[in-house]
Design brief:
The structure is a single chain. With 148 residues, the protein is an alpha+beta fold. It has one domain: Gcn5-related N-acetyltransferase (GNAT) (Aminopeptidase). 32% of the residues lie in helices and 22% in strands. The chain is built from four helices and five strands; from the N terminus they run βααβββαβα. It has a five-stranded mixed beta sheet, with helices on both faces. α1 packs across α2.
Length: 148
Protein backbone atom coordinates (compact mmCIF):
# COMPACT_ATOMS: atom_id res chain seq x y z
CA UNK A 1 0.00 0.00 0.00
CA UNK A 2 1.43 3.34 -1.06
CA UNK A 3 0.80 6.06 1.50
CA UNK A 4 2.51 8.91 -0.36
CA UNK A 5 4.48 9.66 -3.46
CA UNK A 6 8.26 9.30 -3.26
CA UNK A 7 10.47 11.97 -4.77
CA UNK A 8 14.15 11.69 -5.65
CA UNK A 9 16.97 14.20 -5.58
CA UNK A 10 20.69 14.06 -6.17
CA UNK A 11 22.71 14.06 -2.97
CA UNK A 12 25.69 16.32 -2.38
CA UNK A 13 28.36 16.89 0.24
CA UNK A 14 25.66 18.60 2.33
CA UNK A 15 23.98 15.18 2.65
CA UNK A 16 27.02 13.16 3.74
CA UNK A 17 25.90 12.95 7.38
CA UNK A 18 22.52 11.41 6.56
CA UNK A 19 24.03 9.18 3.86
CA UNK A 20 26.59 7.76 6.29
CA UNK A 21 23.92 7.05 8.93
CA UNK A 22 21.68 5.35 6.37
CA UNK A 23 24.65 3.37 5.05
CA UNK A 24 25.36 2.13 8.60
CA UNK A 25 21.71 1.02 8.91
CA UNK A 26 21.95 -0.78 5.55
CA UNK A 27 25.08 -2.61 6.73
CA UNK A 28 23.30 -3.64 9.95
CA UNK A 29 20.15 -4.79 8.16
CA UNK A 30 22.12 -6.82 5.61
CA UNK A 31 24.28 -8.29 8.39
CA UNK A 32 27.30 -7.28 6.31
CA UNK A 33 30.74 -7.71 7.87
CA UNK A 34 31.72 -4.07 7.22
CA UNK A 35 32.68 -2.58 10.59
CA UNK A 36 33.49 0.96 9.44
CA UNK A 37 32.55 3.79 11.78
CA UNK A 38 30.07 6.49 10.77
CA UNK A 39 32.99 8.85 10.12
CA UNK A 40 34.73 6.26 7.93
CA UNK A 41 31.48 5.65 6.04
CA UNK A 42 31.09 9.41 5.60
CA UNK A 43 34.59 9.69 4.16
CA UNK A 44 34.02 6.72 1.86
CA UNK A 45 30.68 8.12 0.68
CA UNK A 46 32.35 11.45 -0.07
CA UNK A 47 34.94 9.69 -2.21
CA UNK A 48 32.18 7.75 -3.99
CA UNK A 49 30.20 10.83 -4.97
CA UNK A 50 33.34 12.63 -6.11
CA UNK A 51 34.24 9.84 -8.54
CA UNK A 52 32.02 7.61 -10.70
CA UNK A 53 29.10 7.33 -8.28
CA UNK A 54 25.99 9.38 -7.81
CA UNK A 55 23.94 9.26 -4.62
CA UNK A 56 20.21 9.87 -4.60
CA UNK A 57 17.98 10.57 -1.62
CA UNK A 58 14.37 9.46 -1.54
CA UNK A 59 11.88 11.69 0.22
CA UNK A 60 8.24 11.58 1.17
CA UNK A 61 6.75 14.91 2.18
CA UNK A 62 10.31 16.30 2.39
CA UNK A 63 11.40 13.61 4.89
CA UNK A 64 14.25 11.28 3.85
CA UNK A 65 13.02 7.69 3.59
CA UNK A 66 16.04 6.12 1.88
CA UNK A 67 18.87 6.43 -0.59
CA UNK A 68 20.66 4.80 -3.50
CA UNK A 69 24.28 4.85 -4.63
CA UNK A 70 24.73 4.22 -8.34
CA UNK A 71 27.78 3.84 -10.56
CA UNK A 72 26.69 5.14 -13.95
CA UNK A 73 30.08 4.62 -15.60
CA UNK A 74 29.56 0.85 -15.87
CA UNK A 75 27.54 -1.07 -18.39
CA UNK A 76 25.12 -2.10 -17.12
CA UNK A 77 24.74 0.56 -14.45
CA UNK A 78 25.71 -0.77 -11.02
CA UNK A 79 23.45 -0.17 -8.03
CA UNK A 80 25.95 -0.41 -5.18
CA UNK A 81 23.63 0.54 -2.33
CA UNK A 82 19.88 0.83 -2.00
CA UNK A 83 18.10 1.39 1.28
CA UNK A 84 14.64 2.24 2.54
CA UNK A 85 14.46 3.20 6.23
CA UNK A 86 13.02 0.51 8.48
CA UNK A 87 9.95 2.49 9.50
CA UNK A 88 9.09 3.21 5.86
CA UNK A 89 9.18 -0.33 4.49
CA UNK A 90 6.19 -2.32 3.23
CA UNK A 91 4.52 0.86 1.94
CA UNK A 92 5.55 0.63 -1.71
CA UNK A 93 8.31 3.21 -1.29
CA UNK A 94 11.06 0.78 -2.34
CA UNK A 95 9.40 0.03 -5.66
CA UNK A 96 8.73 3.72 -6.31
CA UNK A 97 12.28 4.64 -5.30
CA UNK A 98 13.79 1.99 -7.53
CA UNK A 99 11.82 3.14 -10.57
CA UNK A 100 12.88 6.73 -9.88
CA UNK A 101 16.49 5.58 -9.57
CA UNK A 102 16.32 3.85 -12.96
CA UNK A 103 15.04 7.07 -14.51
CA UNK A 104 17.54 9.33 -12.75
CA UNK A 105 20.39 7.02 -13.75
CA UNK A 106 19.04 6.90 -17.32
CA UNK A 107 19.37 3.13 -17.14
CA UNK A 108 17.47 0.35 -18.83
CA UNK A 109 19.82 -2.32 -17.44
CA UNK A 110 21.21 -2.52 -13.93
CA UNK A 111 23.22 -4.89 -11.75
CA UNK A 112 22.84 -5.25 -8.01
CA UNK A 113 24.59 -7.53 -5.51
CA UNK A 114 22.56 -9.14 -2.74
CA UNK A 115 24.04 -11.08 0.15
CA UNK A 116 22.91 -14.70 -0.04
CA UNK A 117 21.34 -14.63 3.45
CA UNK A 118 19.34 -11.47 2.69
CA UNK A 119 16.16 -13.32 1.75
CA UNK A 120 13.97 -10.20 1.91
CA UNK A 121 16.35 -8.38 -0.40
CA UNK A 122 16.46 -11.26 -2.86
CA UNK A 123 12.66 -11.42 -2.92
CA UNK A 124 12.42 -7.65 -3.40
CA UNK A 125 14.86 -7.53 -6.32
CA UNK A 126 13.27 -10.54 -8.00
CA UNK A 127 9.86 -8.84 -7.69
CA UNK A 128 11.29 -5.97 -9.75
CA UNK A 129 12.45 -8.31 -12.51
CA UNK A 130 16.07 -8.94 -11.50
CA UNK A 131 17.37 -12.42 -12.28
CA UNK A 132 20.09 -14.44 -10.57
CA UNK A 133 23.40 -14.29 -12.47
CA UNK A 134 25.94 -15.90 -10.16
CA UNK A 135 27.14 -16.57 -6.69
CA UNK A 136 30.08 -14.68 -5.23
CA UNK A 137 32.05 -16.80 -2.77
CA UNK A 138 34.61 -16.00 -0.06
CA UNK A 139 37.00 -18.08 1.98
CA UNK A 140 37.16 -16.54 5.44
CA UNK A 141 39.66 -18.91 7.02
CA UNK A 142 43.40 -18.31 6.82
CA UNK A 143 44.02 -21.50 4.91
CA UNK A 144 41.97 -23.61 2.54
CA UNK A 145 40.05 -26.55 3.92
CA UNK A 146 42.18 -29.64 3.60
CA UNK A 147 40.94 -32.51 1.51
CA UNK A 148 40.54 -35.72 3.45
Amino acid sequence: MIDHKVSIRSASDDDLDILSVLNRQLIEDERHDNNMSIEQLRSRMKSFIHTDYQAFLFEVEEKVVGYALVNQSTDPVYLRQFFICREHRRKGYGTQAFRLTLGAAKADRMDVDVLVWNHRGIKFWRSLGFEDRGIQMRLSACSPKSEE
